[in-house]
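Please review the protein record below. Tell me whether the encoded fold seems credible here:
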Amino acid sequence: MTHWYISFATDAVFRGATVVEATDAEDAIKVASDRGINPGGEAAILEIPLAAESKADLVAMKNRLVGKDEMLAMGGKRAADCSEEIQNKFNAQADVVCAGCNLSEQVPKS
């Protein structure tokens, strides 16, 4: 299995991010939903290269929803703060699940 980074957001707010282990991007969003760490909204899903899977910041995000302040404290960057080149690479490689298609909208809330 592969590790996947998932970022959740709406047009108005960042909802959090996580790292999960899954077979593909579709499975990654399902795993996040099953674990209760899918807060809804649009999801950008990116496969983590094998060489990066053991980085401390990614390990700290595994199977838990991490907010903006914690991500920034771990050295993460907001997409808007990255160079245009990095933003373009992310956009070209990320799978995106629209808010209306996000599984969290289909998971019963307790």
Remarks:
- The longest helix spans residues 25-34.
- The radius of gyration is 13 Å.
